[in-house]
Fold:
Amino acid sequence: MESLMAYVVGIMFTAAIYMMLRRSIVKLVIGLMILSNAANLLIFVVSGMTRGAPPLIPDGASGPAGAVADPLPQALILTAIVIAFGVLAFAVVLIRRAYEVVGTDDLDQMKDTDT
Structure:
């Protein structure tokens, strides 16, 4: 299962880089969104895909009983999702404003800043 997820992460990174190299700024933002999702999935896969109980220690015990899930990757992914949403919202507003000013979404035609 983990090798399949490694291939999925690789395909997502490849698709993201391909989209980010396109001339359209909308495709660039879609590539950025795919890239952030691929990074989140990479953190999830690298942390180990094992099922476990919540990392709670019962009263009177020195450690958790049995296998527990690691909460750190989950916290990192949650933080990354929030940051990626903020970046995406900013990029969408920036694209809209740039399209209103320049009149195109082609990055090659946006080089002129004297408009």
In short: The longest helix spans residues 71-102. The mean pLDDT is 86.
